[in-house]
Amino acid sequence: MRFTASVRTALLAGVAGIALPTSAFAQAAVDPAEPNGDQDSFEQQADSATGNTIVVTATKREQTLQDVPVAVSVTTAETIERAQIRDIQDLSSLVPSLRVTTLQSSANTNFIIRGFGNGANNAGIEPSVGVFVDGVYRSRTAAQISDLPDVQRVEVLRGPQSTLFGKNASAGVISIVTKKPEFDFGGSVEASYGNFDAMVGKALITGPVTDSIAMSLAAGINKRDGYLRDLGTGNRTNDRDRWFVRGQALFENGGPLSVRLIGDYDKIDEICCGVINVQPSAATAAVRAVGGEVNTPEQIYDGIVYSNFDSTNDIENWGISGQVDYELGAVTLTSITSYRESHAITNQDSDFTSADLIGRKFDDIGLETFTQELRVSGEIGDRIGFLVGGYYFDEKVDQKSEIFFGEDFRPYADLLIRGASGNAFNVDLVEATISGLTGENYIGQFFLPGQGLDEAYGLDNEAYSLFGQVDIDIVDGLTLTLGANYTKDKKAITTNVTSSDVFSGLDLQDIGQTAIFQQGLATQVGGLLGLGRPATAAEIGAFAGANPAGFAAVQSGVQAYAEANAANPAVNPLLALRPLQFLPPFLNLPNSVEDGKTNDSDWSYTARLAYDLTPTLNVYASYATGFKASSFNLSRDSRPLASDIPALGQAGLITPNLTTGSRFAGPEESTVYELGIKGNWRYASANLTVFQQTIDGFQSNIFTGTGFALANAGEQETFGVEFDGLVRPTDSLSLNVAFTYLDAKYNSFTNSSIGDLSGFQVAGVPELSATFGAQWDKEINANGDRLIVRGDYHYESDTQISQGLPGYYDGDQEAAMAAARPFRRQVDDVNASITYAMDMGLEFTLWGRNLLNDRYLLSLFDSVAQAGSISSYPNQPRTYGGTVKFRF
Fold it and tell me: Given this model, what pLDDT does residue 256 score?
């Protein structure tokens, strides 16, 4: 369904009407302007508040959600607890503008805001959505998916945030704020049990050490059987087996100095992630012919997958950080220092069948990250607030990878060769033919177990930013905000990749040219001799000796024909075997042509005008830009730019079967124009945002069936409307709604992996996403015990999952797009919980997520080395269980 301009206008008008207060909006939300004898400070009020009274730090200064003129969604600790949000992935059911998916492994989580986002599956590609935990940037997804410990709130900032958050915030920011240690002794302990034998335990203890030092310690464990049965290994996959520990120390003595130290460690050891086949092909028959198996299309949602070994994920993250705040009158100095390490070891059965085709797909990725932020904030007089600062980022990535053929790959390749050649060839005949043409012995050398790639990559990234923002109260109620950020980003990579895949190292065009020449020469000489058949080598030699001039003329003509037709599949039958050259020789970096370095710099800006229409209703208009630095392709798919090929040829660096175009992607720059209105009344709150957002040079990373194609899209544009509101008809009942409308398209994308996508809608971005929630919280007896019932429904409109499949693209864009067209997704996700909370601190909760067991596909991609076959990751089925928690 497409919305016309007139429909958009009507939609906006309708939403604007919703945002205005009516008699139905009867909320009991806390008003920070009113005295409250049970709370000592505005900050304490805000911690337990709802709606737009929540305190956020979206602009790196504490403000209520009502007062901050930024499009931000906030999920509080209570909502996280009642909705059984176990990790960041679950947040997408509460924030319609956010999509979170885990695909290739437990270490690969992709965040998308307003239809923009990238970064999973490749350590060289930083995300477009920045994730921060207590002000510390988490640069890669392996460090972002730990179970949420002692969380106070999660802020999702929508749209470019580079002015205050620097690079890699071109699409938005997820900011997780945890609870500080408290000077009153307390804590909590909880245990959960659910289906799939899920067991979760968490504990938190906090209290004073001295009058000026408080500490807290949180720990948790999360275990669950996999929800997919692997009939190849006999085990389950997509399980949970992770734990964490997190300690904090806080120094506060009532003076100007405050110091907060945080240390954390988490570990993941899981089997993940299962892939299903959604469309078989002739290659599927070949898999079965060598003894392998894949699921049938009828079994897509039966929880069945096939592998010949478990895809393991061994991941650990740890880090330390320190924040120091010092108040000098109206000015506050802040320093945030952090050091983090992340180490992910994975081994995946990447053919996703029970045949031993890919015997090993191993990755060992280590990251070391140091960050330092210094900032000064304060006020000048009564009308000017300011924030200025600097940020330094230094990261080192070391990656070792291996991909090797398994025992079944040679017989599998034999079947593919027979099919590609119409049974004119088999693997033995190909080896014999090529041996005869080249003079080398290739008998028994193709597609052997253990052949493949040994890979090593290193990336050094150093960046710094200088930023500032000023808020000027022009008149009472009217505030002008101006901000700027200058970022300098340098990257340098080194690679050491060697291929032992013998067949992939052959130049089939050159070898085929030799075959065409030899066949043509024999045919021509045979004709001249009147033999009625091709001449033998001896006959050709005799003809050349008897008639040198004639032989030279024949030889020249045949050579010209062979050169002209070597690239013609109708004449050179060996070209049909090129799709089996999966792991060709790699051109390493740096070399004499490519230095393996990028050096980017950019200015990002913010300009915003906010006006208080009434004490309860604010409006704002803003313009902002964002920046993401160049990204390198740290994988076997890294290939030089086409513009470098002539120089590489002159330097003698061209390797056999060298392709072009996916070495790195240049910077992406985003721009957003935004109008917003925020209302906060005693009985309700509502926020409405209308925006037009574009990203120039969006870094697209698409799986092609044998690897990833990294490229810059010319321009992606999204028009959108976002609304969220809360109303409390009674003191016990609260109702909330949030929805997002997105119209996303490519204004230009000429070099996509399936051809020119300029003018096409962006697949995978639903037009309408919505969440409807309700919570009833009622004191039920004289003891102060409460009954809390919560439910929410998350909806995403029907959308095509993938733009198209590169495996179907051979210059025919329609074929590539048609292959993906039948596969669509609609989300209808229902979650609920009921809690009996005793006044003495004991709570009992029954909960369920995806209660309707709504099943859909998360992604779509060409099956690995299985032409014409299509694979996908399925979503998580229904989960449910019970939790006991004690607060003290």
Answer: 95
Distance (Å, whole) CA 411 – CA 194: 44
Backbone angles phi, psi at 25, to 5 degrees: -85, 90
Buried/exposed 76-94: b ≥16 CB within 10 Å, e otherwise: bbbbbbbbbbbbbbbbbbb
C-alpha to C-alpha distance for 745 and 3, rounded to whole angstroms: 13
Q: Say how far apart CA 415 and CA 411 lie, in whole Å.
A: 6
Task: Please identify which residue in the block is written with the tokens 């979206």.
Answer: 58
- Rounded CA separation 119/141 (Å): 8
The 3-state DSSP class for residue 22 equals coil
The rounded distance, in Å, linking the Cα atoms of 692 and 742 is 10
The pLDDT assigned to 92 comes to 78
Residue 459 backbone phi and psi in degrees, to 5: -135, 125
Give the per-residue pLDDT at 107. 65
- Residue 163 CA to residue 627 CA, distance in Å, equals 9
- Write out residues in the chain with pLDDT < 50, as ranges: 1-48
Q: Give the residues across from 769 on adjacent strands.
A: 740, 796
Taking alpha carbons only, the member of 408, 409, 359, 273 closest to residue 871 is 273
Residues forming beta bridges with residue 387, ordered by sequence position: 377, 469
**Strand boundaries in 704-804, DSSP class E:** 708-712, 715-727, 733-748, 768-779, 786-800
**How many helices (DSSP H) and strands (DSSP E) are in the chain?**
12, 42
Q: What is the DSSP string of 559-578?
A: HHHHHHHTT-TTT-GGGGGG
Name the strand (E) or helix (H) holding 314.
strand 312-328
CA distances to 149, 264, 342, 552 from 314, rounded to whole Å, are: 20, 17, 11, 65
584/591 Cα distance (integer angstroms): 18
d(CA 330, CA 814): 63
pLDDT per residue over 760-812, tens digit each?
A: 999 999 999 999 999 999 999 999 999 999 999 999 999 999 999 988 988 89
The closest of 267, 250, 471 to 380, measured between CA atoms, is 471
pLDDT at 309: 95
- CA geometry: angle 778, 783, 787, nearest 5 deg: 25
CA atoms of 384 and 95, how far apart (whole Å)? 33
DSSP track, 486-539: EEEEEEEEEE--EE--TGGGS-HHHHHHHHHHHHHHHHHHHHHTT-SSPPPHHH
Question: Which pLDDT value is given to residue 807?
Answer: 87
pLDDT tens figures, 651-667: 999 999 998 878 888 99
pTM (two decimals): 0.88
Answer yes or no: are the C-beta atoms of 364 and 399 closer than 8 Å.
Answer: yes
Q: What angle do CA 795, 678, 743 make, to 5 degrees?
A: 40
Non-local (6+) Cβ contacts of 551 within 8 A are 525, 543, 544
